[in-house]
Amino acid sequence: MPSDGIVGRAAAERRPVYVTDALTHPDYSVLTAQGYPVELANKLFDLMAMFAEYGFNKSHTAAYAVVTYQTAWLKAHYPAEFMAATLSSDMDDTDKVELFVADAQSRANGVRVLPPDINTCGYRFEPVADDAIRYGLGAIKGTGESAVHEILRAREAGPFTCLFDFCARIDRRLVGRRTIEALVRAGAFDSIDPDRAKLLANVGRAIDTADIAEAQADQASLFGDGPSGPGAPQWIPAPAWSDRQRLLEEKSALGFFLTGHLFAGCADEVRRFARTPLDRLAPAPQPIWIAGIVAAQSTRMTRRGKMAFVTLDDGTAKVEVSVFNELFEQSRHLIQGDELLVVLAKVSQDDYSGGVRVIAERMLDLAGARAEFARALRLSINGNACGKRLRELIGEYRAGAEASGCPVEIAYRNEVASCVVRLPDEWRVRLQETMLDELREWLDADGVELVYG
């Protein structure tokens, strides 16, 4: 072997002969002497060649390191400005906007993302304080750059005072009904009027009123008077939205929940039987009950048949739950988007991802969880002690003496004493949401309590 060959080079460097030395020399005989097969050298070379097709060289690595350092410095020292620019760069991608908003509002960054406002927001996300960002109107589904710029142009004359004023001042050829409805659903008019249900019901009327006023603007009356104005707005009444409806409408416009979370509406009750928040899940020897809103679901064919993957979100974290075929077929009607799902799950360590693996063993909706865990329905009817009314409200939902029925208790209190009286077993009830809503309307929310063990 020549002195400038594999052995000579290794000797000059005072090191043993490596397999990689053979990659730059046509003679593989030394590999056999060192105990390495030629096939191994060929395999290593193929792997290196494959990596070279996409691997970064040192110049690329250095360039990306500089950019990484600069962006990390900006995020640390100017978090609002940095997150606003990041959000604006991907404002057309709802998934990325949701991810960046969560990152901005995390404890590590502490940047508030203020809701959209028709009188203060621009087209893009804008920093308005060291720890606050104003939402960009262009990130609302159903708007567009031309529509938002028209809104900003009309706003130069002064802030909008109501929905009718807004429709009268904009060019409705650029800002159509769909755009206005999206702005209402997103809460962009909340600073003017927080009743989104009323606003949405009156979008059509506001547009029609603006069209009539514009058509009459240059017309004089029969007696030579000036053009008559539209007068005070005539609002169409509409029932107010519940918190759940408001959030669902908001999600339809933004792609995610910005001003609240669906789980918050039932968190106090659910935490009585599913006590572990999703961000605190840890491997456990026994299955535990967890709960969250169904944020996403997918199915996949495996060797064991169809398998479902359900993403639960309780406002603290999102966790993917694996559901095997048999349970999936039994409970697929319970897996509904934006609905609560209660899962008895086996939580184990996932060595591949470094997190936890969650496998469902049972699944319940809220009604099923109430039937499973509630020990009694307690009603406080002091001042409303009308037995006839009580029979009317719960009579339709009686389960008799069935084990699945929930006992009903009446809480009574006067100036000197208090007691709880349980009704006979034949007055056990099925805990359906309609009955609970009717009872809350009669007794108010504090007078209706589900007692859990």
How do the strands and helices of this protein lay out in sequence?
Layout: H1 6-12, H2 29-34, H3 38-52, H4 58-77, H5 79-89, H6 94-104, E1 112-114, E2 126-129, E3 132-134, H7 145-155, H8 163-169, H9 177-186, H10 196-201, H11 203-216, H12 243-254, H13 267-270, E4 288-302, E5 305-313, E6 318-323, H14 325-331, E7 340-349, E8 356-364, H15 366-373, E9 374-380, H16 387-395, E10 408-413, E11 418-422, H17 433-443, E12 448-452
Parallel strand pairs: 1-3, 6-8, 9-10
Antiparallel strand pairs: 2-3, 4-5, 4-7, 5-6, 7-8, 9-12, 10-11
Helix pairs in contact: 4-5, 5-6, 8-11, 9-12
Low-confidence stretches: none
Quickly count the helices: 17
Helix content: 25-40%
Radius of gyration: 33 Å
Can you give the mean pLDDT?
Answer: 87
Terminal CA distance: 83 Å
Number of domains: 4
Number of strands: 12
Shape: flat
Strand order within the widest sheet? 4-5-6-8-7
Major sheet summary line: 5 strands, mixed, barrel
Structural class: alpha+beta
In percent, how much strand structure appears in the residues? 15-25%
Query: What order do the helices and strands follow?
Result: HHHHHHEEEHHHHHHHEEEHEEHEHEEHE
Q: What is the chains' assembly state?
A: single chain
Question: Can you give a write-up of this model?
Answer:
It is a single chain. The relative contact order is 0.05. The protein is of the alpha+beta class. It folds into 4 domains: 6-52, no CATH class; 56-257, no CATH class; 267-364, OB fold (Dihydrolipoamide Acetyltransferase, E2P) (Beta Barrel), CATH 2.40.50.140; 370-452, no CATH class. The chain is built from 17 helices and 12 strands. The strands form 3 sheets. A 5-stranded mixed β-barrel has the order 4-5-6-8-7. A 4-stranded mixed β-sheet has the order 11-10-9-12. 37% of the residues lie in helices and 18% in strands. The mean pLDDT is 87. β9 (374-380), α16 and β10 form a beta-alpha-beta unit. α5 runs antiparallel to α6 and α8 (163-169) packs across α11 (203-216). The chain is flat, with a radius of gyration of 33 Å.
